[in-house]
């Protein structure tokens, strides 16, 4: 079993209907799919790989002094019986930083800023194309999701990029790469390592590998798409398994609602009840940051109560 791989370029040809159906299936049955021939220049993706790897080399010493490394070293030094060693269940074996339009970016290597600005522009355009496909598949007017995320055009949707590396881990039995969770936001676009695996998706009770694929962009749907679609599209549990070989690169971009946007299920057919509450996305994020690695249903209940106040 493997997550769907979809040729995005076929939306413009004779196989449009089939491609639309494949994307609908990816959203409904998996919550994850991989796009190839997505329109992002391969030369740009090569530059992104290069500057990200160079940036990590400058950060590697810092990671080696970080809390996850120190905690694992301390655990290994403890002279206790093997079956008494506790896993580090609240730690992620990850080096990470975030890129937004209004925060400070790494200044080295010199090409980092220019390359990542160009990459983010391309990813944002791709996200909006994917959302328009979702609009059409859900029977919504073109631009519905983008409009909802912007508070009917009053606010700018949030677009952030998380640059992660998962270095080789000496004790895979004791630590996670990244703990299992669903994503809080809208549409997530991941440019993952094409050599080192580790990302897994929960499907029918089984953890399925998201196979590394050169120059593909992995798409997944977040909690807000689940709400807007009234549950037709699901945000799914996923995790990163630590590996002992290779340093896995992961660059995830998040096209999310503005924190001021009100999110609710799109108007449903007569007789179909809204299965999710109406809430302000900023309120949802306040709950999410405290409950990221827990089931999402209590998060929806919490924001429903906040809206009724």
UniProtKB/TrEMBL annotation:
Pathway: Alkene biosynthesis; ethylene biosynthesis via S-adenosyl-L-methionine; ethylene from S-adenosyl-L-methionine: step 2/2
Keyword Membrane applies: no
Pfam families: 2OG-FeII_Oxy, DIOX_N
Transmembrane segments: none
Keyword Endoplasmic reticulum carried by entry: no
Top-rank taxon, per record: Eukaryota
Domain Fe2OG dioxygenase stretches: 157-257
EC number: 1.14.17.4
Keywords: Ethylene biosynthesis, Fruit ripening, Iron, Metal-binding, Oxidoreductase, Vitamin C
UniProt record similarity statement: Belongs to the iron/ascorbate-dependent oxidoreductase family.
Protein name, UniProt field: 1-aminocyclopropane-1-carboxylate oxidase
Source taxonomy: Eukaryota, Viridiplantae, Streptophyta, Embryophyta, Tracheophyta
């Amino acid at each position: 079993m493997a997550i769907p791989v979809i040729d995005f370029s076929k939306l413009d040809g004779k196989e449009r209907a089939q491609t639309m159906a494949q994307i609908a299936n990816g959203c409904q049955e998996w919550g994850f799919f991989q796009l190839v021939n997505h329109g992002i220049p391969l030369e740009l993706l090569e530059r992104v790989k290069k500057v990200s790897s160079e940036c990590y080399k400058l950060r590697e010493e810092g990671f080696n002094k970080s809390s996850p490394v120190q905690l694992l070293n301390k655990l290994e030094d403890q002279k206790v019986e093997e079956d008494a060693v506790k896993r580090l269940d609240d730690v992620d074996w990850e080096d990470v930083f975030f890129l937004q339009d209004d925060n400070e970016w790494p200044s080295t290597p010199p090409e980092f800023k220019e390359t990542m600005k160009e990459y983010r522009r391309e990813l944002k355009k791709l996200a909006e194309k994917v959302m328009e496909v979702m609009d059409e598949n859900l029977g919504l007017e073109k631009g519905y999701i983008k409009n909802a995320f912007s508070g009917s055009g009053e606010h700018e949707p949030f677009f952030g990029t998380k640059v992660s590396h998962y270095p080789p881990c000496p004790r895979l039995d004791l630590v996670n790469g990244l703990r299992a969770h669903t994503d809080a936001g809208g549409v997530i676009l991941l440019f993952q390592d094409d050599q080192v695996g580790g990302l897994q998706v929960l499907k029918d009770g089984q953890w399925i590998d998201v196979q590394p694929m050169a120059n593909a962009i992995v798409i997944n749907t977040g909690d807000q798409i689940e709400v807007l679609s009234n549950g037709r599209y699901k945000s799914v549990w996923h995790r990163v398994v630590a590996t002992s070989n290779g340093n896995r690169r992961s660059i995830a971009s998040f096209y999310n609602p503005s924190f001021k946007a009100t999110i609710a299920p799109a108007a449903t057919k007569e007789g179909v009840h809204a299965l999710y509450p109406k809430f302000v996305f900023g309120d949802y994020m306040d709950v999410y940051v405290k409950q990221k690695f827990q089931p999402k249903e209590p998060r929806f209940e919490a924001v429903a109560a906040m809206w009724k106040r």
